[in-house]
Design goal:
heterodimer, A: alpha/beta, D-Maltodextrin-Binding Protein, domain 2, B: alpha+beta, BirA Bifunctional Protein, domain 2, nine-stranded mixed sheet, about 45% helix
């Protein structure tokens, strides 16, 4: 059997991952047609490349179906309970930087901190009869963050895309989403709370703590780690 | 973990004991409409309960407890006074600890009685205590009502009291608010700028979303009023802290709280209730001299307890959750009763844990 390395199957994240490994003399490449999700690893014997959606990599690592995987810290922390018992971060790859933040409309001149958000939520609930809605796809992370900071009278509403548009569309009053430059937020007239940083994320190479490894596979992982100069 | 048949038998024994105290058996469905629970507990319940849905009824919850359906049924159909008992599975989502059960049996005893709430408190405690038998458990007690009375009695604005009252169950935010109201943390620079601005809306950000400009303006007015209010005095903050730190046997705690009440008369009625509850417990044969009292007990559990609170713990098994818990939840009946209300107090036992403890002895 071979050591399975899961990497994002498309876009910039895939290209940057290939580049990062290539700089360390481990050549990752796609094989077959452009549309076929197959790939190969050159430079280390006994490796297999598995192309996956970045969002599925945490689950595959936690199930032990892949040994190594590249994905964002945000996805690992959101999707895996007790994540640190299931995966071990080996290296931060220095790209795919994204902050999970809480943002509110720029016109809310009275709201700059979580303390303000909490007070605004209480007044909003009293006036509108329902809890202030925060649109996000990061339910666990955001709920834990708001609980730790004692924000009450809010509710999370699920938004799997175009989250920044939910406020204008009046399906939410605030958002919790990933941002790298803040451009999309600004374009949608939203501002980040000054203490609203939930998590700083970047593309990271993780090792599964649960995937079974043979003696040969253990050696392969060791060889790879030496080439990558990690761990 | 004891097997399910034994747990069911133990649950039946407990329920029979509660029926012998005059409680009617209560049954409810496992799937509960999610809306009521979500509105009551907020987002927190999603982290604790399993939510499911179908295209017809929308979101449903696997019942996380019996309290809400008992209160709803009582307020719709019940005659007063009333005692109820129930036994059945509850479901709690666990995201951080695999060792905690996500499904377990609860047996409950709930009392709805307008006439003598203090005696009802003592009744629920002693009925549950005797049902637990000789399991050698340590009882912890508290009273959220004392802290609520202390907040009510502060020499400060109604808005500040309301904010503190809202966060009694979130100790960290409660502390942050208290520090700010007492002038112990500086006003954030952005807040100072906002309050100083001639026209806070000068930047002209487009108005989007449901929260209107009038609502924003109303909050700015409230913030200005708050900025002009005198800070909560050091003395009062000290008294609140002194209350929060009370952790003694019940008679000593009572004495300590009476001392504090001399300087903070607003808590006197609540402290008197504690004294009368101690007598009521004593009349029911509870060894009050050895009973622990902790003023901040129950602050981190769900927000519906607003008076007497208690729990029973296995001292030699700190890894186990409480074997029994309970308390007074008058405010919950107010929220669910839409105008109506009834003083209510109750508690639940986990027969599975009781058996596990017996097996370990």
């Amino acid at each position: 059997m071979s050591v399975k390395l899961g990497v994002p199957s498309k876009g910039r994240l895939m290209e940057k991952t290939f580049e990062w490994f290539g700089d360390r003399n481990v050549r990752l490449s796609r094989t077959g047609s452009d549309r076929e999700y197959a790939g190969r690893v050159d430079g280390v014997e006994g490796m297999e490349l598995v192309l996956l959606s970045a969002g599925e990599i945490p689950r595959e690592l936690a199930a032990g179906r892949i040994h190594l995987g590249v994905t964002g810290t945000d996805l690992i922390r959101e999707k895996l309970g007790q994540w640190d018992q299931k995966v071990d971060p080996l290296a931060e790859l220095g790209f795919g930087h994204a902050d999970l933040i809480i943002a509110v409309p720029g016109c809310w001149v009275d709201v700059d901190t979580l303390d303000d958000l909490d007070a605004a939520a209480a007044a909003f609930r009293a006036k509108h009869g329902f809890r202030l809605r925060v649109a996000t796809k990061y339910h666990r992370l955001v709920r834990e963050f708001l609980r730790d900071h004692g924000v009450a009278d809010y509710q999370l509403v699920d938004s799997q895309g175009a989250t920044e548009g939910t406020v204008k569309n009046e399906t939410a009053e605030a958002v919790a989403d990933i941002t790298s430059t803040g451009d999309t937020l600004r374009a949608n007239h939203l501002k980040i709370l000054s203490d609203g940083l939930v998590l700083k994320s970047q593309a990271t190479l993780f090792r599964s703590r649960v995937a079974p490894v043979s003696v040969a596979e253990r050696q392969t992982i060791k060889d790879l780690c030496r080439m990558l100069a990690v761990d | 973990m004891p097997d399910k048949a034994r747990i069911r038998a133990e649950a039946a024994r407990l329920r029979t004991a509660f029926e012998a105290e005059g409680a009617q058996a209560f049954e409810t469905t496992i799937l509960q409409p999610a809306e009521v629970l979500l509105d009551l507990y907020g987002e927190e319940i999603r982290a604790r309960a399993y939510v499911t849905s179908d295209a017809l009824r929308g979101e449903q919850m696997l019942r996380p407890d019996f309290t809400v359906p008992v209160v709803q049924a009582h307020m719709t159909y019940g005659a007063e006074p009333a005692r109820y008992t129930y036994a059945g599975e509850v479901f709690r989502r666990q995201e951080d600890d695999l060792d905690r059960a996500n499904e377990y049996v609860q047996v409950g005893y709930e009392v709805f009685d307008r006439d003598n709430p203090i005696d009802s408190d003592a009744e629920v405690f002693s009925v549950i205590k005797s049902a637990l038998g000789g399991a050698g458990l340590r009882a912890a007690t508290g009273d959220i009502g004392i802290l609520m009375a202390a907040v009510e009695g502060l020499q400060t604005t109604a808005a500040r009291k309301a904010a503190l009252r809202r966060h009694i169950w979130h100790p960290r935010r409660f502390r942050a608010l208290l520090d700010r109201y007492a002038g112990r943390t500086p006003v954030p620079a952005t807040r100072r700028a906002l309050l100083a601005a001639a026209d806070p809306f000068a930047k002209g950000a487009p108005e989007i979303g449901l929260r209107s400009r009038a609502e924003i303006a109303a909050r700015i007015t409230a913030l200005k009023a708050d900025a002009e209010a005198a800070p909560i005095s050091k003395r009062e903050v000290g008294l609140l802290d002194a209350i929060l730190q009370v952790r003694e046997t019940l008679p000593n705690a009572l004495e300590r709280l009476r001392d504090i009440a001399v300087d903070m008369p607003a808590v006197s009625p609540a402290v008197d209730r504690l004294a009368r509850r101690m007598q009521a417990l004593d009349r029911r044969g509870v060894d009050v001299a050895a009973l622990d009292f902790e003023a901040s007990y129950g602050r981190t559990s769900m927000e519906y307890y607003d008076g007497f609170v208690f729990g029973f713990y296995a001292e030699n098994r700190p890894d186990l959750p409480a074997v029994a818990t309970g308390g007074r939840y008058d405010a919950l009946t107010r929220v669910l009763g839409q105008g109506a209300e009834i003083p209510a107090v109750g508690g639940v036992v986990r027969p599975g844990l009781l058996l596990e403890l017996e097996a370990g002895q």
